[in-house]
Amino acid sequence: MNSPDLINQHIAESYDRTLYTSNAFYYSSPTHLRAAAHLYGVETIPVESARVLELGCAAGGNLLPFALAYPNAKAVGVDLSSAQIEQGRKIVSELGVENLDLRAMSLTDIGKEFGEFDYIIVHGVFSWVPPEVRQAILRICRENLSPLGIAYISYNTYPGWKAGDIVRDAMLLHSHGAGSDEEKLASAKAMLTLLSDGLAATNPLAPSLRGAVAQLRKQSDYYIAHEHLETFNAPCYFLEFADMAQQAGLAYVGDAEPHSELGASYGQNVQLNHSLIAMGQPKVLRQQYLDFAVGRNFRKSLLVHQERESQIAVSPALERLRELRWAEHFIPSDKPTDAPAGRHFYTNHRGMSLHTSETKVMAVIETLTQAWPRTLSFDQLLEGVRATGRIEGDGQAQTQAVQEALETLFKLQQLRFSLGDGPHDGRQAGNPALVPGFAYLWEASQHPDSSVGTSNLWHEVIKLNLKPAEAWLLPHLNGRESAAQLKTRLRDAWQQGRTPGPDGAMLTGQRNLDAKAQEALNKLLALLGRLGLLA
Predict the structure, then answer these.
(1) Is 55 in the same domain as 16?
(2) How far, in Å, CA of 405 to CA of 424, rounded?
């Protein structure tokens, strides 16, 4: 067996031994990638019938919500770990998903005959594989990408990963010679105490190291093992990645989160100084300067065929925000006692906080929340904002106000957006129904060996903690029963002792439970609706 084969075998065995939950990442979903590419001036294929390939797909958790949302599309996932692929295939089969194909194979074995794809996704792979596999990834993104295709590759970057390098070196040193994976992980985690509590006051790197350790302590054991303790972890400067892509016949488009390429997203100080030093510089050099300014440690780069380079905008075109469709759900949150008068506080469905005193922003928030989880075009959003009566002035002034509010929320990463219909648009309103596959995946997630995480159709990870009565009711939210029938079903289940009541106590034989059942149902439906889990 030659050296690359030995390396592949070692990597596969490592991932087979330490299985993990395969999750979705919204910024790598074809729906999001298509909209992001549009802001850079790049044309892509509509997702409804797209061909999608993911390299390093694990058990398929990052492809499954796409396949469920767009049954006429085709998705293929490839991973070196046969154990994870087998787990994913079992789920795909039990859900009856016919447009998702998972294959256990080395990326280096993929050639032109594998077919063309409109979207190629490589998340959490590029920095963690040997050089020959990195070269294969870029080759696949050139040879297997359709003429209007777009590729997504994420990777660790400097300068932000410099502190991570030190932490990784120290963890590897202390775990060297450990007899098992468990011992290696325990030894590595023990080193974190020295790098946080045991640093000398004179250590000039102390703030960076403590910050890196603090972030690492929030992560799972699986993440620590594969992010810091694997043989390969090769961060690079963005400029180096862009050069590798160019040599492979690919052109850099922009980051999959376009707001992150705008100096204005990081405050006026960054915006002013970055614009001065980067003035007149090429696109990739401007972005490298921005990485130095913000200490970026992770990038999510979009690539197209080099022949399309002339189409790519230097930076995201904010005027194109009007050509996208928008969605989000906000709820008012508690206002701090020392908050200025007139300032309002909100939390979006992902738990992100927002406070504003701008009437135009509040009008957009209110209008989008009413439409959630469906999207609104700019014109629909403008019409809804006008109906709130919050924005004065003529039509031009109102249009400008909505544009400015969108730009503000976009830079704060508060909204979901799509080019064309979103994943919930066009679905018929009817009886309460969960998004496809969620009830099955939620039930599976209750077991410790769960291999695929739960997500909504916006490709967002959803961790749902339910009371026993809510969990009992979940499989019945299938669109075949009205809200009134579901209330009756829950009431009868309580009376017959099949599930505990809202407070955990049994209600067997009790009467007059209709109001309590209605309240519990309304609360559950409101939660599911807010999280984008109702079709």
Answers:
(1) yes
(2) 23
Residue 332 is part of which domain span? Answer: 325-418
Q: Is residue 39 part of a domain?
A: yes
* Biggest CA pair distance of the chain: 77
Q: How many domains does the chain have?
A: 4
CA gap 242, 301 in Å, rounded: 9
Asked if residue 495 belongs to a domain, the reply is yes
- If asked whether residues 462 and 379 sit together in one domain, one would say no
Evaluate whether 8 touches 106 at the Cβ level (below 8 Å). Answer: yes
324 and 35 Cβ atoms separated by less than 8 Å: yes
Question: CA torsion, points 109, 111, 113, 118, in degrees to nearest 10?
Answer: 110
Q: Which residues lie across from 354 on neighbouring strands?
A: 346
Assign 142 a pLDDT band (cuts: 50, 70, 90).
very high
Burial of 393 per CB tally in 10 Å (0-12, 13-18, 19+): exposed
Nearest residue to 523 via CA among 479, 478, 490: 490
User: Are 248 and 190 in a shared domain?
Assistant: no
Q: How many helical (H) and strand (E) elements, i.e. helices and strands, does the chain have?
A: 19, 14
Q: Can you tell me the distance from the alpha carbon of 446 to that of 492, in angstroms, rounded to the nearest whole number?
A: 25
Helix ranges restricted to H, 372-530: 378-388, 395-411, 438-445, 468-473, 483-495, 514-530
**What value does the mean pLDDT take over residues 39-66?**
97
Quote the tokens at residue 102. 């998972």
Separation between Cα atoms, residue 264 and residue 470, nearest integer Å? 44
Same domain, 52 and 137: yes
Please, which pLDDT band fits residue 109 given cuts at 50, 70 and 90?
very high
Q: What residues contact residue 316 under an 8 Å CB cut-off, 6+ apart?
A: 39, 40, 254, 258, 259, 261, 262
Whether residue 521 sits in one domain with residue 460: yes
List pLDDT tens digits, range 393-448: 898 999 999 999 999 999 999 999 999 999 999 877 789 999 999 999 999 999 88
Could you tell me if 244 and 111 lie in one domain?
A: yes
Within a domain: residue 192? yes
**Rg for the chain, CA atoms, rounded:** 25
pTM over cut 0.90: yes
